[in-house]
Each structure stands twice: as structure tokens, then as C-alpha cells.
Design a protein that fits this description.
The complex is a heterodimer of chains A (159) and B (136). With 159 residues, chain A is of the alpha+beta class. Chain A has one domain: Pnp Oxidase, Chain A (Roll), CATH 2.30.110. In chain A, 18% of the residues lie in helices and 35% in strands. In chain A, a hairpin with a 6-residue loop joins strand 5 (67-74) and strand 6 (81-90). In chain B, strands 1, 2, 3, 4, 5, 6, 7 and 8 form an 8-stranded antiparallel sheet that branches. In chain B, strand 1 and strand 2 (28-33) form a beta hairpin. Classes of the chains: A alpha+beta (159), B alpha+beta (136). At the A-B interface, strand 1, strand 2 and strand 5 of A face strand 1, strand 2, helix 2, strand 5 and helix 3 of B.
């Protein structure tokens, strides 16, 4: 499923503070985990990437239950979208031909494995800026479904 | 027992939350609610629309575990996650918070806060953040 241009723009606001999202994952026995994520990008129109910066419970969940939901937290401006689909974490050390949902981990890490270099977080206010960006990998979602989280139409399928 | 601090309460009540739910087999669904009411030490109540109730009622019925992250700028400025047990009373989602985590990116991500003495949580907050809630 391809994201619309409006969705891609909303997720990648380069140099303007970026989008802020929540990522919900879940253990295999149903315990959800919902965390805010700051470093977000789009890959080849149909995947959403998030820098993995010590997302410990997220990683544990994805290793046993590889699915997630991404909801836009800020700026919303009517972009009340929830993206759901198979999700994993790419990290250095995977076999060179490792693929997930049609994407090669090596290719993704080559482009987004060093987020601080590609998109330095200079616009993040000092009181919430990590002292040093330590990235362990890339959280990687293939978007399969998009639904509205707007209150009066929550759950309505958009794409 | 988990006890929310005034800062946590201010962010949840001011901007609402993203609420993660799931089937008992782990298929997740997230709803977003724009405000909340914190009662007592650890009860958070959300007024849901009919559509939101329809979206999550089956999940809550079979698996009452939920995860809550502050909405809006609270997503990063109020880097907390609240986990608890939910029930629906009509259109009100009541969540008894049982665990509180710091989700600040970096080495303190996933630090469990509710197991600290309450005064230590207050001290932790005062050394990590300058605000006491969302901007007015």
C-alpha cells in the first residue's frame, strides 16, 4: 500500500522539527506498549521508519509479535491517521540478504543507519534533546492499513 | 501501587492520550483521546465517542490491558508510559494505572518509575524536565 503525498509530507517534516508519533506494539500474550518516537521517515512510499534508540520493550515485542500501529501525535492538523502493519527492527549484523516485507535490511541501514548524520536534530529543544544520539537500528513498518483516529469516525478505513 | 505525579496529571488532562489496546492474541489498535480526568492516585478516565467505543470494546472485553502515552507535544515532552487495566462504563474508559515508565530516548528509556519512592519520582522529574505541564 502506497502512502499519499500528504501522508509522506506529514511524516517527514525535514528541518522543521519533524513529526512526532506514538508507536504501539504488543507482546504475544496481549500486553500493549505505546511510546513516543521522534525520528520518523518514509521509505519507498510504503514503509515507515523510526530510529531505534533503546526501544527495549518495543524490540522484545517485535521479536515475538511483529506488528505495530503508528499514530501521529504532533503536529496533527487534521492528520488523524493510524498506520498499521508488519513491523520489525533492522540492526547491523543481520545477514546481508535479510529481507522483511520486500525490503532489504542492508539497504535501509545504509541510508538511515546513522540518523544523526543524515538529519541532525538541531531543532530539538535542549531540555528534551538526548545528550548524544545513540542509534541501535531502524524500526521498520510495512504499512498494510490506514484508519482514522478522529473521535467521531475512529476506526474508519482510509486506505 | 502506582501514584501519578502532578506533572503526569497535568499532561494527561491537558492534552489527552494515545491509548494502545490489543486482542488477547496481540493484534494492536490505538485510539486517541483529547482529554482525560485523573482521579485519586492512579485512576484515569477518558470520555470516548461512540465510534471509539465500537473500535475497542471487543479488545477491552477479551484483554483489559492498555498502554497510555501522553498526546500532542506530550509525546516527547512528557516522556511517560502508563500501563494498566481498563474497563468500559458506557462511553467512559476507566484505567487503573499499575505501572509507570520513563520513555525518554536513551539510556533511561523503559526506566520503571512507580517502583521508586514517590519523592524520588518527583526529584527525577525536576531534574529531567523544566515544565510542570503543557503550555497554557
Amino acid at each position: 500500500m502506497k502512502l499519499t503525498d500528504e501522508m509522506k509530507d506529514a511524516l517527514m517534516i525535514i528541518g522543521a522539527g519533524g513529526a512526532v508519533v506514538h508507536l504501539t506494539t504488543c507482546s504475544a500474550d496481549g500486553k500493549p506498549n505505546t511510546v513516543g518516537e521522534r525520528f520518523v521517515a518514509v521509505w519507498k512510499d510504503e514503509y515507515i521508519l523510526i530510529a531505534d534508540m533503546f526501544a527495549q520493550k518495543t524490540k522484545k515485542n517485535l521479536m515475538e509479535n511483529p506488528i505495530g500501529v503508528i499514530t501521529i501525535a504532533h503536529p496533527v492538523k487534521g492528520r488523524t491517521w493510524a498506520f498499521r502493519g508488519p513491523t520489525t527492527i533492522f540492526q547491523e549484523g543481520l545477514p546481508p540478504d535479510f529481507e522483511f516485507q520486500g525490503a532489504n535490511a542492508k539497504d535501509v541501514l545504509a541510508e538511515w543507519g546513522n540518523w544523526a548524520e543524515k538529519e541532525p536534530p538541531s531543532e530539538v529543544p535542549p531540555d528534551i534533546r538526548p545528550p548524544r544520539l545513540v542509534q541501535r537500528g531502524v524500526i521498520f513498518m510495512k504499512v498494510d492499513e490506514i484508519y482514522s483516529y478522529k473521535a467521531d469516525e475512529a476506526g474508519r478505513k482510509i486506505l | 501501587m502506582a501514584k501519578l505525579t502532578p506533572r503526569m496529571k497535568n499532561w494527561l488532562e491537558g492534552l489527552g492520550a494515545h491509548i494502545g489496546t490489543a486482542t488477547k492474541k496481540g493484534f494492536p489498535t490505538t485510539i486517541v483521546v483529547e482529554s482525560a480526568k485523573v482521579e485519586g492516585d492512579n485512576m484515569v478516565k477518558f470520555q470516548l465517542s461512540n465510534a471509539q467505543v465500537e473500535q475497542i470494546k471487543q479488545n477491552i472485553s477479551e484483554n483489559p490491558q492498555v498502554a497510555i502515552g501522553p498526546a500532542g507535544l506530550g509525546c516527547i515532552r512528557a516522556a511517560y508510559q502508563f500501563k494498566g487495566i481498563a474497563k468500559l462504563e458506557g462511553n467512559i474508559l476507566e484505567v487503573e494505572v499499575r505501572e509507570i515508565y520513563c520513555t525518554k530516548p536513551g539510556p533511561e528509556a523503559a526506566l520503571r518509575l512507580d517502583t521508586l519512592p514517590y519523592e524520588n519520582i518527583i526529584k527525577f522529574e525536576s531534574t529531567r524536565w523544566r515544565d510542570t505541564g503543557p503550555p497554557k
